Amino acid sequence: FGTPGCEAPMCASCQDPDCIDLPECAEDCTDGIDNDDDMLVDCADSGCADSCGICQIDNNLGQSLGNAIAAGSTRGATFNRVSSCGFGSNAADILFSWSAPFTGCFTFDTFGSAYDTVLHIHTECPDFFEQACSDDYGTSLQSAISRPMDVNDDLLIVVDGRDVDDVGDYVLNINECVEDCTNGVDDDNDGDIDCSDADCASATPCAVETCDNGIDDDGNGAVDCADADCRGAAVCRELCHDGIDNDFDGRVDCSDTDCGSDPACIACPMADADLGSITGDLIVTGSTEGLGDDASASCGTPVSGEDLLLSWVAPSTGCFLFDLAGSNYETVLHVHEECPSFVELGCNAVSGAANLRLSVVSGQPYLVAVDGQGTDSEGTYALGITPCVEDCSNQVDDDLDGIVDCADTDCASNSDCIAEICDNAVDDDGDGDTDCADDECAQLMACSCPVSDWNIGYSYGDGVVVGSTVGASANVTASCGGTPSPDVVVEWLATSSGCYIVDTVGSTFNTVLHVYEACPSFQELACDDDGGTANTSAFEFVAFADEKYQFVISGYSDTDVGDYTLNINPCP
User: Fold this and answer.
1) pLDDT (tens digit, 9 = 90+) per residue, 101-111?
2) 138 CB contacts (<8 Å, ≥6 apart)?
3) Residue 503 belongs to what H/E stretch?
4) What local confidence, expressed as pLDDT, does residue 263 receive?
5) Which long-range contacts (CB under 8 A, 24 or more apart) does 344-351 make?
6) Strands of 154-161's sheet, edge to edge?
7) Nearest to 398, CA basis, from 431, 355, 436
8) Which has the closest alpha carbon to 57: 105, 11, 94, 101?
9) How many Å apart are CA 556 and CA 554, to the nearest integer?
């Protein structure tokens, strides 16, 4: 614009330094047009902060610190400020001004509020630049932001709601940052996390147990060798002939597995019976009463009960399950190499009937000990030895072949391991659910519909929706563009049948735009990557009056996020 022959400059853009102050380049805050060419329209433009009520401060907090320095309700308040997190935070909000009382790190939070809050902080007006935004902190619905600040730095703080219906009683807390020494977060923004932070030097979780000073250094109630941190320390090893439980594992001298190789502790008992290579669910039963205690176990109580030793030769190489199901007392089951070594290969002492899985070698003899928990533990036993069977759905390597569940070839024909085909009307995996009713298919586009972030009704024109994809989730995969990226879904009703031009011109990042028939069909009708200017997207499509459509605004890749503008206009 400009007139040839006059002194006014010729301006291709209001962002030209020669033109930025011209009256024609002032932002009109009510016409839906980006008058000053800064890609921000009406109240989204900082130049409209005053006229749009963005900078109208509700409460000046001065330099106050503490919990509940402000409390009240957003019911009856108006929606004036948009944030980059939540659903754009288009709920009623409250604006506070605050100044840092000293140089340091400060935490702003809404803990104690009664609704799903969003908290965002900004520079002073007229810039009103967002410095940080928080929706849900951790697992709570409240918000928290920590920031380093210099003394007398000024901030504008907005207490907001996640969506339009999120209003209620709020609490605003402002406190100096305190390092939590156990949460894996740099709470005080000094670059050091948890025990690496000097603030945690004296904290109990960060102390190290010294194993021979008689002090509970780490405050966990256990001193020296009784502390788990000292297990394996040289000063805490079991001495096998002093009558003391040196390593605090409940076992003294030769009853401790640490002493298993000590010559004075090795004793090789004789087998009470020879089972040969027999296998089965029940291969032998009887009573241990009066048999005596010939073999010590590494599990169960420190002193075991009366035991039965059975010689057994593995019929094949592989995993076998030794099981005392059907026994009528608290059993311990342990398996050893044959004498003279008598090395324990495995031990189990669960409450009730013990069982043990063990990899064995064909033709190798083993000693199986049927034992009890405690000196007086005896009773009727029932022993079974069977090849291990892989359970295909328990997340356990049941047959000890190093392969779990469906990855094991033993599970190839198991119904839990057959994939559901989601469009053939057949219950392929036999779980009683067919196609989209099966959990395996729930995430497919044909089986799921995204929730709309915006519902704009019959609205059309330039800038019908503006916002940001920062902090959004990647929910919809387009047929064009690159990889899935954070997206926003806009629901729209066509005002009349005909051709429409839809574009993202005015957006600040490399967009991908796609349109779908509204759920439940959610069929893609059009998709474009770079049909607009400056890596924005544009396409034409035919809509039908009063039909509902869903536009999805995303990026070319998962790093392409930013401010978007959606324009919907009838074709010329």
Assistant:
1) 999 999 999 99
2) none
3) strand 498-503
4) 52
5) 344/257, 344/260, 344/297, 344/298, 347/297, 347/298, 347/299, 347/300, 348/299, 349/297, 349/299, 349/300, 349/301, 349/373
6) 59-60, 94-99, 154-161, 117-122, 130-134
7) 355
8) 94
9) 7
Reported residue count of the chain is 572
At 468, the amino acid letter reads S
| pLDDT of amino acid 44 | 63
Asked whether the beta carbons of 119 and 134 are under 8 A apart, the reply is: yes
Sign of CA pseudo-dihedral 325, 369, 298, 397: negative
CA 555 to chain centre: 23
Long-range pairs of 193-197 with CB within 8 A, sequence gap ≥ 24: none
Give CA–CA dist 411/408, Å, rounded: 6
Rounded Cα–Cα distance for residues 459 and 454 (Å): 12
Q: pTM for this one?
A: 0.35
Residue 71 has pLDDT above 70, yes or no: yes
Q: How far apart are the C-alpha atoms of 554 and 562, rounded to whole Å?
A: 10
Please compute Rg for the chain using Cα positions: 36
Residues 6+ apart with CB under 8 A from 432: none
User: What distance separates the 2 farthest-apart alpha carbons in the chain?
Assistant: 121
Percent of the chain with pLDDT over 70: 91
Q: Residue 433 corresponds to which tokens in the numbers above?
A: 């659910």
Q: Does residue 406 sit in helix, strand or coil?
A: helix
pLDDT value for 520: 75
SS3 content of the chain, % helix, strand, coil (to 5): 10, 30, 60
